[in-house]
Design goal:
The chain is an alpha+beta fold. It is built from 6 helices and 10 strands, in the order αββββββββααααββα.
Length: about 260
């Protein structure tokens, strides 16, 4: 599933070709959004919010796509051959000089921008780790959400993936964050002190921001996908296993560098 850094780059890539330009054509695969309603309006913004890509229009409408595992946004010149089959296009937007195509996204919806604060998904997102204005207030809010009593029994791996706690981090960067801070991925939130949680939030922000600034691709990964290979820090063989909870993902960790407090004793 694309993480926040991927969506941040996708928005940055589309923005200069869409913002400020009138929509001359729009279509969507059915069933899907009535995207033809934006024809004649002007694109006013292209932004990422967590793992969502949002395109806003001057007529008060907004397009939200969530790419999940297989979706992607492409940008073409008018008449340029697409790199994927037309049947896979979920949404197509045409503006002077450019065609933006969203392929294979399972989520594509059009709604009024004024209703964004009531949106069932967007309104529940935690602080966006790639918000350009990310600062101390965002850190404090992320800590408050991670510390919610409903997350106390979660492993820290599971809690970091919860977009309602902090938005944008996915499986790659929560593994990298936990490794960088030498935190046992299976320790519960209740058994971590505030200082450690704060370090994790700040490190996740730092890693995502660094990766988002490195097109194409993402920043270097030290632990993700290294099961059975030596830890780059201590040489111990990296292990892997499933993360429990609503969002099952593969966890990678070094059993020496990321020992729990009990194991250290």
């Amino acid at each position: 599933m694309p993480e926040g850094d991927t969506l941040f780059r996708a928005a940055a890539g589309l923005r200069p070709h869409l913002v400020g330009r009138p929509v001359t054509g729009a279509r969507a695969r059915r069933p899907g959004p009535q995207i033809e309603r934006v024809v004649g309006s002007t694109v006013t913004a292209v932004e990422s919010q967590g793992k969502n890509l949002l395109i806003r229009f001057s007529n008060g409408l907004e397009l939200r796509t969530h790419l999940r595992m297989n979706g992607s946004w492409h940008r073409y010149r008018p008449g340029e051959r697409w790199r994927r089959a037309e049947a896979r296009a979920r949404v197509v937007l045409e503006v002077p000089g450019a065609v933006a195509v969203c392929f294979d996204a399972p989520v594509a919806e059009l709604f009024e921008t004024r209703a964004e604060g009531l949106h069932p998904s967007l309104s529940k997102l935690g602080p966006d780790l790639l918000d350009p204005a990310f600062g101390e207030d965002h850190v404090a809010e992320a800590l408050r959400r991670v510390r919610d009593p409903g997350r106390a029994a979660m492993s820290i791996s599971e809690a970091l993936l919860d977009q309602r706690a902090l938005a944008g981090i996915g499986n790659i960067w929560r593994n990298e964050t936990l490794f960088a801070e030498r935190v046992d991925p299976f320790v519960t939130v209740a058994n971590l002190d505030d200082a450690t949680l704060e370090r994790l939030v700040r490190r996740a922000h730092e890693l995502l921001r660094a990766s988002a600034a490195m097109p194409p691709g993402r920043g270097p990964m030290r632990i993700y996908g290294r099961a059975g290979r030596p830890c780059p820090r201590c040489g111990t063989l990296v292990r892997s296993g499933p993360t429990s909870g609503e969002l099952p993902r593969t966890t990678y960790w070094c059993p020496r560098c990321q020992q729990s407090e009990e194991e250290k004793r």
